[in-house]
Amino acid sequence: MTVLALAPPPGTDRRSGATAAPVLTFGSDGVRRRRDRLATEEPLEIRAGGPGEAPLAVAVTMRTPGHDLELAVGFLAAEGLLGDGARPPVAARACAQDPNVVLVALRAPLDRSRLRGRIEVSSSCGVCGHAALDELGDRCGPVADGPRVAPETLIALPDRLRDHQRLFERTGGLHAAALFDERGTLLAVREDVGRHNALDKALGATLLAGPGAAPRPAIAMLSGRASYELVQKAAVAGVPIVCAVSAPSSLAVDAAHRLGVTLVGFLRGERFNVYARPDRIVL
């Protein structure tokens, strides 16, 4: 048996919004190593405050670095936190200690009543993706080793997922997530306008079925791209393999390495890329 390993992706080129990463590509011509370019995903903490107020962390959002000041101001405007929409904030600047934090100075005091139940509030200081991953790893630990699946099992999953996307067939506007055992037996499939909601629903379906009602999920199949949050959800739920028909983000790959998740992207036709933990796939 040949065990192949992949190193975590190197540092991000913040100017290009892309991150280089090693990848194993499986196809009819065999398995080969190459370099891939991933869309960079990092969290941005938005802090805001009025005259004489210490900036308050009002939201953390995942994004591709670039135009962060515009993102912060636009977010606050859309949430009604700028007051008079015709008047821009006094200033927006990046935090000198952390490029993933933006400080916005408002012309009027921050209306904290608008934060309740509408915006994810974080009191953390200097939030960054790696710190969040370290905390998550401490909480849930790495996913257990095994099982090992055949490439043919993975190749069949996208068609099986599409066969159960009933609402997508009628609307064309929904994401889907499915859970399978290591043999490719379908355990649950759910659709939603949000990709995170679709996976949550599928996980919930297997849990509500009760212990012993179905095998433990081994594979999560996603209809779109693989983001950090989706890899995180799978790891916390103990699902060892995450597959997506589209690309993973850079932070998704980083999370997969740290949490021991096998991450497969561009699973289309008879080809796929393995970005982390290829040892669970019989190559």
From TrEMBL:
It is found in: Cytoplasm. Its main location: cytoplasm. Mo-bis(molybdopterin guanine dinucleotide) binds at residues 266-271. Pfam families: FdhD-NarQ (PF02634). Required for formate dehydrogenase (FDH) activity. Acts as a sulfur carrier protein that transfers sulfur from IscS to the molybdenum cofactor prior to its insertion into FDH. Belongs to the FdhD family. This is Sulfur carrier protein FdhD. It comes from Patulibacter medicamentivorans.
